[in-house]
Amino acid sequence: MISTRKHLDYALGYLGLNLLAEARAELALIKPADRETPDVLLVEIELAMAKSAWSRVITLAAKVTRGVPELERPWIAWAYALREQNHIGDAYDILIMAEEVVENPSALLDYNLACYCCLMDDLTEARRRLKRACAREPEWKSEAASDPDLTALHLKKPRAGS
Q: I need a surface site. Which of 24, 37, 100, 118 has the fewest CB within 10 A?
């Protein structure tokens, strides 16, 4: 009998190769008693993200964050799914909640908050968040230069002293 961990590893491998049907099939082999564990739900989130199944991402991420709020990835996925559904304010609110409970938030949290602030026309906060993210992950400066969510930052340069 193959362990749940091994099925998850196989599913993640298939996801990495963009073999979504195979990843789904691998997850289906997990014994029912393990299907609601955070580890399995996290892989389910990744599969739903790959399929652009935003409602499913939201449902799964909400479930995981209720049980394990200190994990960052489900918060990021939840917010991204909301953003994809054009609920930018809700996406921002989710990540603000995440900041309070996630252990050691990554630069990705700030980067995404910069994007959402920019989309909500809060360019001062967007700049602050982006600067903080890029200080931790300098290679993101080039990513930010072409990110459509940050277009307003490139169009409206800060005034002297801002």
A: 100
